[in-house]
Amino acid sequence: MRDFSTLKKRILEYIKYKGISKTKFYKLTGISNGILSQKNGITEDNLMKFLSTFNDLNTEWFFRGVGPIEKRTEIQHYYSKNREKNVEVQLIPFYDIDTTVGLSLFMQNQKLQALDYFIIPGLPRCDGAIRVTGDSMHPLLKGGDIIFYKITNKENIFWGEMYVLGIDLNGDQIITIKYVQKSEFGKEYVKLVSQNSHHQPVDIHVDNIITIAIVKASLRFNSTI
Predict the structure, then answer these.
(1) Distance CA 106, CA 209 (A)
(2) Which positions ≥6 away from 148 have C-beta within 8 Å?
(3) Nearest alpha carbon to residue 199 among 220, 218, 214, 177
(4) Distance (Å, rounded) from C-alpha 53 to C-alpha 40?
(5) Fewest beta carbons within 10 Å, which of 15, 46, 118, 142?
(6) Domain check: are 108 and 26 in the same one?
(7) Contacts of 160 by beta carbon, 8 Å cutoff, 6+ apart
(8) Distance of CA 66 to the CA centre of its chain
């Protein structure tokens, strides 16, 4: 879980490094006077005001304490073909849905406790990020890749796009990533198609879909060294 007290300390370290007074900081960011002097942490709203104001900040240093204070080049890989207005700066929560509790909450479209956060400049608005498991979308997505998604609803499906779905099948709850296509069985069904040809397409009733989110982007780590 993110330690927001540590983040406030890094904000103070950053403005000291840049030679910015607290008075100027409050004026530039629109954050209320005195926030930096309080002993508690910082809210996500104020955090976003800070991140959107200072574009030369190295977010790797800010969130993880790694590297120099000033900006590094962000690595990103886009997938979605939909045209949507990009967001200059956003804090994207990263969730762990491997646990039963996480899976249940995700399927009910409830807020989970974030393990960490991503910042990828220019990415369309996203609601969260999760790690890919399995090989159904191989080679486009591999196990361990991270996808960024935006929650939508069953009435606004873009046929042929990739989605992460929370599905209830006879009481068994699963999370799956598939292309969603029209079904030959009619409007009450959808066809879920894998990238991996070893996985056969499956038609499911729309009532079995509990949560649906369009995949906006994917991230792959080629090396951890």
Answers:
(1) 12
(2) 92, 118, 120, 123, 126, 128, 129, 215, 216, 217, 218, 219
(3) 177
(4) 22
(5) 142
(6) no
(7) 179, 180, 181
(8) 21
Do 150 and 213 reside in the same domain of the chain? yes
Alpha-carbon span 25 to 85, nearest angstrom: 29
Do the Cβ atoms of 67 and 58 come closer than 8 Å? Answer: yes
Task: Indicate if 51 and 97 belong to the same structural domain.
Answer: no
167 with 113, same domain?
A: yes
Query: Which residues pair with residue 150 across a beta bridge?
Result: 214
Indicate the helix (H) or strand (E) that contains 62: helix 59-64
Question: Quick check: helix, strand or coil at residue 35?
Answer: helix
pLDDT at 23: 92
What CATH number does the domain containing 198 carry?
Answer: 2.10.109.10
Instruction: For residues 40 and 105, state if they share a domain.
Output: no
State the residue range of the domain holding 56: 4-64
- Rounded mean pLDDT of 138-164? 92
Closest CA to 74 of 88, 60, 91: 60
pLDDT tier, 193 (very low <50, low <70, confident <90, very high otherwise): very high
Considering the chain, what percentage of its residues have pLDDT values greater than 90?
Answer: 40
Cα 69 to Cα 212: distance, rounded to the nearest angstrom? 38
Q: Do both 51 and 96 map to the same domain?
A: no
Q: Backbone phi, then psi, for 54, in 5-degree steps? A: -110, 95
Structural domain total, the chain: 2
Please provide the average confidence, as pLDDT, over all residues in the chain: 83
Q: Which two tokens stand for residue 221?
A: 């780590």
- The answer to the question of residue 17 being in a domain is yes
Q: Which residue has the higher pLDDT, 135 or 86?
A: 135
User: CATH number for the domain including 50?
Assistant: 1.10.260
